[in-house]
Amino acid sequence: MSEIKTEWAIIGAGPAGYTAAIYASRANLAPVLVEGMQPGGQLTTTTEVENFPGYPQGISGPQMMEDIRLQAQRFGADIRLGVITSVDFSKRPFILNLDNGDVIEAESVIIATGANARYLGLPDEQRYMGMGVSACATCDGFFYRNRRVAVVGGGDTACEEAVYLASLAEKVYLIVRKPYLRASKVMQDRVLTNPKIEVLFNCNTVGLYGEDVVEGAKIVENKGTEAEREFNIPIDGFFLAIGHTPNTSLFKGQVEMDAEGYLIVKSPTTATSVPGVFAAGDVADPFYRQAINAAAAGCRAAMDADRFLIGD
Ligand code: NDP
């Protein structure tokens, strides 16, 4: 067990955390970044990233994260493997306890722990992950030009993704478990009037099929009623849009969050309810959820933390 004292601790190793580390280390502030369970974050489960500026030929998600990580290390960021098991933000220095017994004492903390897309929990989702299964239409929709896809969900995200995919794909099924859409009226109208989108109400997905990649989904309609029936839809892409869960359980009771668990920041800054604690990326962003936005927020958090420490 060792005690690490630092001006800056960064929790999380996605685009937000690594970008904050680049800015902090270039300012000679020797940040300590703890990577958590999934170094590289959600992008490590993405195949090709084609919408991050600077990569005209595209780049694999894991490679891009490795590049950003190396960039932070080049300037001296102290990047550590490990999981933070508890924090104490009640006074400064803030205390971060790691699973290996190490303790970090930090004058400021940037939380960049991200969010995870929710999945249905079907074994087939894991089987075809990156082979037709995706939780981000903006990231992967382009690969389904003139193909058939399905989106699961009835909220604003699902409707937005269905409309976006309809601009690329030949046909979009929207699989909704209830007899109505939960999305805002304007998004409902866009979906229901789009000739490329077919809404399958009262439907649940029970499996996917295909040789190596997704070739279709098995659907049950009116489950548990006399009208129950099963049918298949031929699709190449299966998009989940049933919500995200921010990784904030560690901070419950210490940092203000909304009903969904997203950290609340004093926009346009990244300041949380605890002076000296900042939040960047998907952990505080239920709307944009893109790597470029997370990276930009990481930059802002680093600048906010710097100003906070100077003003001390
Ligand atoms: P929501 O929680 O609003 O919607 C989730 C949808 O997924 C619901 O239709 C829900 O069904 C469905 N769902 C959940 N679990 C399952 C499951 N196991 N099987 C099948 N369906 C399931 O999440 P969103 O991501 O859509 O939106 C999050 C928030 O962000 C909302 O407040 C939304 O308004 C907002 N948002 C706003 C946008 C905008 O203003 N442009 C864009 C995107 C999001 P059910 O209805 O049956 O519970």
Structural write-up:
Strands 1, 2, 5, 6, 7, 8 and 19 form a seven-stranded mixed beta sheet that branches. The chain has a five-stranded parallel beta sheet with strand order 10-17-11-12-13, covered by helices on one side. α5 (156-166) runs parallel beside α6 (185-192). Helix content is 24%, strand content 28%. By secondary structure, it is of the alpha/beta class. It has two domains: 3-116 and 245-311, FAD/NAD(P)-binding domain (3-Layer(bba) Sandwich), CATH 3.50.50.60; 119-240, FAD/NAD(P)-binding domain. It has helices spanning 15-26, 61-74, 123-127, 137-140, 156-166, 185-192, 291-310, and strands at 3-11, 32-34, 48-49, 59-60, 78-80, 84-88, 94-98, 103-111, 115-117, 133-134, 148-152, 171-175, 197-200, 203-209, 216-221, 229-234, 237-240, 244-246, 277-279. The structure holds NADPH dihydro-nicotinamide-adenine-dinucleotide phosphate. Residues 120, 152-158, 160, 177-178, 182, 242-243, 286 line the site of NADPH dihydro-nicotinamide-adenine-dinucleotide phosphate.
